[in-house]
Amino acid sequence: MGGVNNLPPTPAAASAAAGTQSYRSSGVGDRQQFDGPGPEAGRNSPQPAAQVEQLNGQVETLQNAVANQRMSQSRTSLDDNEYSTRFNRLNGAINNLAFNIRKDWRSLPPWIENYVSPDAIKTGKQEMTAVGRAVIIRWIVDEVFNKCFHPGLDFGLSGHLKAIEQNIRRFSYTLTSQEEFDALTAKVVNWRMATLEGLQHMLQSPESNDYRADFTKMVASNLTAALYQYLNDPPPPGVDGSASMIVELVVGIAANLPMESRDVVISYPLPGDPIQPDIMEPEKTGLPPLADSAEEGEDSGKDGDKASKRDKTKSAPPAKDPTKIRFAGFLAVEVRGRQVLVKAPVWTLG
């Protein structure tokens, strides 16, 4: 039976084998205790191909929907360069008219007269050109950009819609963060876009062109009349023609502004407002100094005219302050929350 060993194992060998088996068994338990529980069955199994395809299809559908929504909400009527070009043309046309009438002023609008030097009207030089620019552009901002929603609509309806647009922002709650400012801007833009969609039947009708022509004619006539009340009589020739050209440019801009899905803001800085370097550009060429209020009071006292003294005291020129505006020669244009397209040229009280 040669090499076959039929003898039972010795006690030592049996103990060694048992010890080895016991050691290996306890090792597995210890490893599980320290490594934590093993993975559950089925967790690493791949997802079915059909389910993966379905999920990919849903993701693609959502991505397309978001992209289409952004495209439908992002509308640019004119690009930044075109807006800059049009406002530069408007500024040039206003400068030409202001220069041509610089020697023809007989009085000034009350809002600016305290910010003009005593001899400005008499001399009719550079300061009166700047004053003419200020008077013309403020009238345009107040009477067109702040009152017209779209020139292709009935004048009354356009005015009401513009008031609603302004009131959405004016009567909003106090904003405390940039996110709230952005949310309000989006609210205004969304309202304007929805309103324009509802007005397409009017804006695309033949009557829309008639409304725009009538509005242009009315504004040109009103601007001419507004200037005539402060100019010599008879007024200088060419004022009405220059006013018509200016208004044509203004109406062309006003017809594009409401079509924008961004918030293009037009503002005119008023005398006494603080300088805002981000939307204003101080003019390097200075103007003649304003009259000193103390000297004016002394002169009035010498004359003994108490009523005149009271008037002069009431309308005393403002104190020197290089951080405040004397007046602005043009408007400021910015895309709210993004960039400034036009900085308003201003003269300071310094």
UniProtKB/TrEMBL annotation:
GO terms for biological process: methylation. One of its GO terms (molecular function) is methyltransferase activity. It comes from Eutypa lata (strain UCR-EL1) (Grapevine dieback disease fungus). It comes from the Eukaryota. Residues 1-50, 275-322 are annotated as: Disordered. This is Putative s-adenosylmethionine-dependent methyltransferase-like protein. Keywords: Methyltransferase, Transferase. Residues 299-314 have a biased composition (Basic and acidic residues).
